[in-house]
């Protein structure tokens, strides 16, 4: 009986361990922040474990999608790199210059040049379809509507072993995202050490009340992806402050020192005493 019990317990522990996620669920913290903050902003947020794909999402309204703003520029560069790979070509000097300006400084003119080069709407739609993300391109690329979880899947291409991007392309994009202009280093980088990010902000043209869309998205410590999309902010800075608070709470929760797990055999022996 004891041998059978040991085998059963060992298998049980192994299965549980293999399915465990390394990220903590920050949705309760996010709810508390929204409750304490005097804001009419709509928030959709998502965190994704890079190792397991486990995802936690949060919305404070029925709104499921928000304009991507400049966070879409990561999609433009990923699509370009895949096209270059398929053609067996390297980026030209001009393409590198535009990619740098588009990601590091969020330059819209540079983004427009590369968006046109990949085929505009069709190029982005083909890219999203190829990675299994259902997004419909808007008339102007920054106004494209998406969920935070969809943006996380796009960033997951930079780490996923099944990604269409090769190692060189992944490293190039991550390098640019890790050297964002200092004036744009906010959002998901708040309370984190090693971050590759891309933020976005714009007036919500559909709202007609001068409110702002303020978004932040990035990869934290090579462990998880965090995206926070907001709309209905009274102004740019108010939106940045809100996104920073939500990001700081999520990052703080992930950085909590985990208790070292007891070994499988120690736990088994304890049960058999």
UniProtKB/TrEMBL annotation:
Superkingdom of the organism of origin: Bacteria
Annotated GO MF terms: hydrolase activity
Q: Which residues form the signal peptide?
A: 1-20
Coiled coil start-end: none
Which InterPro entries does UniProt cross-reference here? Beta-lactam/transpept-like, Beta-lactam_cat, Beta-lactam_class-A
Ranges of residues in domain Beta-lactamase class A catalytic: 99-208
Keywords on this record? Hydrolase, Signal
Q: Which Gene3D superfamilies match?
A: DD-peptidase/beta-lactamase superfamily (3.40.710.10)
Name of the protein described by the UniProt record:
Serine hydrolase
Q: What is the lineage of its organism?
A: Bacteria, Bacillati, Bacillota, Bacilli, Lactobacillales
